[in-house]
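Case study 2.
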Amino acid sequence: MEPARIGLRKIMRDLLRRQPAEEAVLLAWPVVCGSQVAARTRAVAFAEGELTVEVADPAWRRQLASFDSKYVAGFADLLGPVVEEIRFVKKANSN
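Prediction:
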């Protein structure tokens, strides 16, 4: 019997792939990065293969940038090769 987590991931993959890429990528960010990272970040835009993610803390931005290839691979698993690059930017209205 297939573990429930794998089955749920397949269902999510199917649902996300039916959405326009611009929406699917933003919706998939919390799944790809995990709940702890998702709680401290926000996917704000996707265009021409580049996902823009807001992060308030400069140290977190640098750390997350070192994981960008892992996140790109996670998107490829869920959506196919639509995300080519992730740009971590300063969160609007943060110091």
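The first strand starts at residue 41 and ends at 47.
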